[in-house]
Design goal:
Length: about 325
């Protein structure tokens, strides 16, 4: 099985590449090659028993060889994320819309249609704090990133109907705890309030304790991506997008989990006011009924405490090393 990861140098792309290298298989089939693509050529995962080709470039002008003949699975994770897409309209449109269009053109050239797993987002919905969304809720995004993701879902789904690919779009929850440094996503602080105190660093919190958020762990997100790549899609019909079973938590519960894992860590959190950011994140829904994805075999979420402990186990030491923290 030949696989491509677009956005293979990003947070989830690297986790996914490492997992494929560790397993050596996808859905029980041996991985024969992996192409990693990002703005700069991503590092190959350690210990892969298959050849890895790393390519740097711009998604909107997808270089030859990124989705080579014989590709059977494409993970399309490359994106300009929320706050950056809101701040730079042209860049967001170029990458999230035209870049996705370039993926369709590359897939059309293949002799047989690949499975494409696309990472959409709950930011493609509006609704805010006090609604429970279900599988037939209309997407009314409150920002350009969400609009671009919703648009991409639609034209990927049409490409799928036409037989150019077989797409599964996952509207991912906010993934916590993100390792490394704070990033340009508006959701960055949801990870920072766990990660930074565990690093012994101060961090800002722009919402109150009762603010709810729909989250998933990196481990769970990778499981879902792998499942989406190999699941039987015959029952999906024309609706190619899914809300996987994340977890609704509030800030108070996150801080309590942090405190359980590291007593006193919460004292490093500074409560601040950021009206612009608050306006954007307040449009994101915090609770879903995920019956369809659960029925299609997407695994349920582990408890919040396990998510914080998994960050300590998987990512705390590499994050310290990356940021030069003793
Ligand atoms: N992490 C989350 O909380 C979350 C939530 C919902 C959806 N998603 C989606 O999941 C995917 C992966 O998220 P992530 O957290 O790993 O993001 P990330 O920002 O770490 O990774 C995205 C990658 O895309 C690359 N990229 C940007 N512009 C590009 C271009 N023009 N050409 C090639 N590559 C380009 C970036 O360099 C980056 O490495 C994204 O599509 C994101 O929108 C993430």
């Amino acid at each position: 099985m030949n696989i491509t990861i677009l956005g293979g140098g990003g947070f989830l792309g690297r986790k996914l590449a490492n997992r494929l290298a560790k397993d050596g298989t996808l859905g029980g089939t041996r991985v024969s090659s992996l192409v990693l693509f990002d703005l700069t050529a991503p590092p190959a995962p350690e210990g892969a028993a298959f050849p890895v080709t790393s390519i740097g470039g711009d998604l909107a002008e997808l270089p030859d060889g990124v989705i080579p003949p014989g590709t059977s699975v494409v993970f399309h994770l490359a994106a300009v994320v929320s706050a950056q897409a809101e701040a730079d309209y042209d860049l967001g449109r170029r990458v999230n819309v035209r870049g996705t269009d370039a993926v369709i053109d590359a897939c059309r050239k293949l002799a047989s249609p690949p499975r494409v797993v696309f990472t959409s987002s709950i930011a493609s919905y509006g609704g805010g704090q006090n609604v429970v969304l279900n599988d037939s809720t209309k997407q009314i995004p409150g920002g350009s990133y969400g609009a671009q993701k919703a648009a991409a879902e639609l034209f990927l789904s049409d490409a799928s109907r036409r037989g150019f690919m077989e797409v599964v779009s996952l509207r991912l929850p906010t993934i916590i705890v993100r390792p490394g440094r704070p990033n340009k996503a508006a959701s960055s602080f949801f990870s920072s309030i766990i990660r930074e105190p565990l690093l012994g660093l101060q961090t800002d919190l722009p919402v109150g304790d009762d603010f709810k958020v729909w989250v998933a762990s990196p481990r769970r997100a990778v499981e879902w991506l792998l499942h989406a790549a190999t699941m039987d899609t015959s029952g999906m019909g024309l609706d190619r997008s899914l809300n996987p079973p994340g977890m609704s938590v509030n800030i108070g519960q996150m801080l309590a989990a942090l405190e359980t894992v590291r007593q006193g860590a919460g004292t490093l959190i500074n409560r601040i006011s950021d009206p612009a950011l608050m306006k954007l994140v307040s449009t994101w829904p915090a609770q879903f009924d995920t019956a369809r994805a659960s029925g299609l075999g997407f695994s349920a979420h582990e408890p919040l405490l396990d998510v914080v402990r998994a960050f300590v186990e998987d990512d705390l030491a590499p994050t310290k090393a990356e940021r030069g923290i003793a």
